[in-house]
Design a protein that fits this description.
This protein has 17 helices and nine strands. It has about 475 residues and is α/β, with parallel strands linked by helices. It folds into two domains: about 200 residues, no CATH class; about 240 residues, TIM Barrel.
Length: about 475
């Protein structure tokens, strides 16, 4: 289809949905589902709301016209939010906006002899869509809101409450036609929502089975991205999980990490990653040019919350024979929001064992500096989102300057992620950040390719003017 890319977003998504191609091994399947349902809801609301607005404008039913036209405005605002990358806000805004507008219109959709109430049927696709879109949210959005939609459908469907004043409601003839249209539209959108929900269940079930097989048959592997100092010497590496699927090829972590978290497979996978990293350190200990390297391993929220997390890690490291001082455990800032005291105890226990801790993605969440100073981090990583536009964005520059000063005051080693250009490197160096990681030096590599890297990575001649390397 040569012009497929020029078709509307919702039509492309629906076409792929019915072909069974939409979610399989997508980078972020859940986010794609959210976009799909929002696109369908926005499209349906614009068509139906626009058509009824024109009709009620012609009939001079101003209140009904305003309610239906508000559907168009709501959908346009949601589309704007999606284009701005604010999918979560768009979903919340769309769900609650539709609920309010449907409730208001249902008040004017009172059953009459020969005319059934129909607008309340839209509560059903809102409930179904919300249960899928908000399945990762808190109890209100995930459970209470969909139940309220079902309750609304029950109340309006089994009663005749509402306004019956002839000047405010639609004519019985058009309402009879509208009942068919509303029921068909509501059931159609509900059907699509159910198909998406079924694909969600099928995909997660398939991913779970594939991941179990991958773990058993050794389809997972580790790639290593070098971490370098201001002289270009490699001092460590970050171990990054990859899945070499026998049929689909290399699957990015964004596809399966969330599913692993939800199914609990992240626990055995996380233990496997630590075992592999430890085994690699033991192998490198016999190589003069590699024996000094440390390996950074990411720790998931599920792992950290396990009561026996400390004992499990200590046992893995001890059995491997690796030096605990060469293992760096990385936590993301979002993991510090809950159970801080328990996290501190576990971190200190492993620190006493000889391991060190690194704080990843700092500045992207909402952690409190008041308790951050009590956490035994030895390394602070500047998130790549601040490095990406460092040269053109004054806010990013201010954040980086602040993080450098913070690292110095808290006596933490600073490392910048996502370094891709010499200009970024020079700026970071000038501000006092002396350790780096990013594609400017190397992408994540297989262990064989990593071991072939030169050190220093770049020639000193290339940066003689800046004093780097």
């Amino acid at each position: 289809m040569p012009h497929f890319k020029n078709t509307p977003l919702q039509l492309r998504l629906v076409a792929k949905l019915f072909k069974g191609e939409l979610f399989q091994f997508a980078q972020d399947p859940h986010q794609l589902r959210v976009k799909l349902l929002l696109a369908i809801a926005a499209c349906a609301s614009i068509i139906l709301g626009g058509a009824w607005s024109v009709y009620y404008l012609w009939q001079a039913k101003w209140l009904l016209m305003a309610f239906n036209f508000s559907l168009v405005i709501l959908s346009m605002l949601v589309v704007t939010m999606i284009n701005a990358g604010r999918d979560r806000l768009a979903a919340i805004f769309m769900a609650h906006g539709l609920a309010l507008i449907i409730s208001a219109i249902s008040v004017f959709d009172v059953p009459l002899p020969g005319v059934v109430r129909s607008v309340h049927m839209y509560y059903l696709p809102i409930a179904a869509g919300s249960s899928l879109v908000f399945r990762k949210e808190g109890i209100y959005l995930r459970v209470i809101f969909p139940l309220l939609m079902l309750l609304g459908c029950l109340i309006f469907g089994s009663s005749d409450i509402g306004i019956t004043q002839a000047s405010l409601i639609a004519n019985p003839e058009i309402r009879a036609v509208g009942a068919w249209m509303n029921n068909l539209a509501a059931l159609g959108v509900l059907g699509i929502a159910l198909i998406v929900m079924q694909s969600d269940i099928t995909l997660r079930s398939g991913l779970y089975a594939d991941m179990r097989e991958a773990l058993a048959k050794g389809h997972f592997c580790l790639h290593y991205q070098p971490q370098v100092d201001a002289q270009g010497h490699i001092f460590g590496a970050e171990a990054l999980l990859r899945w070499q699927h026998p049929e689909q090829g290399l699957i990015p972590p964004g596809v399966f990490i969330t599913a692993a978290e939800e199914t609990g497979l992240i626990l055995p996978i996380g233990n496997w990653v630590l075992k592999e990293a430890c085994a690699q350190l033991v192998k490198w200990s016999d190589h003069p040019h590699l024996s000094h390297l440390s390996i950074a391993v990411n720790v998931s929220t599920s792992q950290l919350r396990q009561p026996d997390f400390v004992q499990e890690v200590q046992e893995i490291v001890t059995r491997s024979g690796a030096n605990p001082g060469q293992i760096k455990l990385e936590l993301t800032e979002s993991m510090l929001a809950n159970e801080v005291d328990d996290t501190i105890q576990k971190m200190r226990a492993l620190q006493a064992f000889g391991m060190s801790w690194s704080l990843d993605d700092f500045g992207t969440g909402y952690s409190s500096l008041n308790y951050l100073k009590h956490l035994p981090f030895e390394q602070l990583k500047i998130d790549q989102s601040f490095v990406r536009d460092l040269l053109n964005n004054e806010s990013d520059q201010a954040i980086v300057d602040t993080l450098v000063n913070l690292g110095k005051h808290l006596k933490m080693t600073l490392i910048a992620e996502g370094v891709e250009t010499i200009e970024q490197l020079e700026y970071l160096h000038s501000k006092g950040c002396m350790k780096y990681q990013g594609y400017f030096f190397s992408k994540p590599l297989t262990v064989q390719a990593f071991e072939q890297l030169p050190s220093p990575l770049l020639s000193p001649v290339a940066h003689s003017t800046s004093g780097l390397f």
